[in-house]
Each structure stands twice: as structure tokens, then as C-alpha cells.
Amino acid sequence: MANELRPCPCGIGDRFDYEGCGQEVQVEHIKVYVCKPASTDKAVIVIHDIFGWQLPNTRYMADMLAANGYIAICPDFFAGKEPWKLSDDWSKFDDWLKTRDARKINKEADAVLKYLKDQCGAKKLGVIGFCWGGVAVHHLMMTYPELKAGVSLYGLIKDSDDISNLLNPTFFIFAEKDDFIPLHQVTLLEQKLKKNCKVDYEVKIYPGQTHGFVHRKREDINPQDKPYIEEGRKDMINWLNKYV
């Protein structure tokens, strides 16, 4: 996502050299990447950032969830539209983003939920999302009561946003040095949640970290960030384990 005054920060960080353990399948009108453990009735929807559902980093996170006992599914929430590329013209980013609204994904979400229930035997459902996907998590957690837990990783919050009407427990991960999500917006979110939210929630700021640190940084070449990368991933999985 992008702050109103700045281009999207998702280009920072590293692109993982990762093939993925799952497979691509067609689910109604969209393609999805899915990775399944041997046997489970728990599933997590993984929502990509602006670089789309085929980004190796996002598939790495999906496979990590599968290794922790979840059916992990990463759908193409752009529904066939091109993801953003680093070579694209940033001056056109806002126009590009208008055609990919993270709050208008119900058709895709409906298809994925039906697939998980009917084809995968999933009975316990959660959702996580990164950046653009973090905003999508906000929307879904206020819309779909069957999603028993959500984790939003550095999803943009505007001062005017009120996402305190959550239906189920939601965990918000932010980076202290994220120039694109000012800490005053995080503080305002906490105030609104404390006043209005009727379900469990947590807001956590990871010191010294920048936007995208959980899925866009390789711990092997960012040793100073490794403890926080690992902590963010562990916190995410612990939240899912607690509520899904």
C-alpha cells in the first residue's frame, strides 16, 4: 500500500530465491497457490502485497504455515490483473491501485472459502496479509465471521479509517521505522480498538524494523534484523494457533 503522499514501499527488501512446495490450481474465476500438510481441517488464506500471488516471498510464508499444520492458500486477489513491477512508473501507481481495491475482494474471498470448505475439508479458518493484503485482512475480518483469526502485517491505516468493528481476534504487526505508516496512525488505531473493539486484538510495533520486514527481508543477509523477522513470524503463527 502507499501513503497518500508517497509511492508504495514494497519494493524495499529482498526477493526470495524460492520455488515453493505447493501447486497452482484454478478456483472458479481465479488461480490460487495451495500447500497442504498431510491431514488437517485448519486453513489460512494468505493475501499477497502489490507484487501479486506469485511472489516467492509470499509463497515461502504460505509454505511455512503449511509446515505448521495449516492448509495454506494464496489466491490471486487481483483476479488476473497484472501485479505491480519494480520497473513500472511510480507516477502511475495511484491509478493502478484504484483498479485493485483491497476492500472489494468479496467475490474472490467467497470462491476461496467455498473451495477450502468443499474441496479441502477445512472447518477452522484464518487469514493473514502483507501490506496491500494487510488492508484486505482489515476488510475481511469485519465481513466474514467464519474467519476466526486474522493477522494484518503492515497494512496501511489512514487517520479516517475505523477498523475496530472486528468480528474475531485480529493481530496487527507494524514496524517502528516504517516511513509509510506513521506511528501516530498506529496510536490512533490502538485508541479506537480500545474504545470500540469487542473481540481480542493486539497491536505490536517491532523496534528498528522497516516496512515489509516479516516477508521481504532475508534473515541470512540481514543479521541485525533476524531476531525481529523470526519474532514476527513466530507471533503470527502463535496468534493463529491460539484462535484457529
TrEMBL record:
Belongs to the dienelactone hydrolase family. It is found in: Cytoplasm, Cytosol. This is Carboxymethylenebutenolidase homolog. Keywords: Cytoplasm. It comes from the Eukaryota. SUPFAM superfamilies: alpha/beta-Hydrolases. Its main location: cytoplasm. Residues 30-243 form the Dienelactone hydrolase domain. Pfam families: DLH (PF01738). One of its GO terms (molecular function) is hydrolase activity. GO terms for cellular component: cytosol.
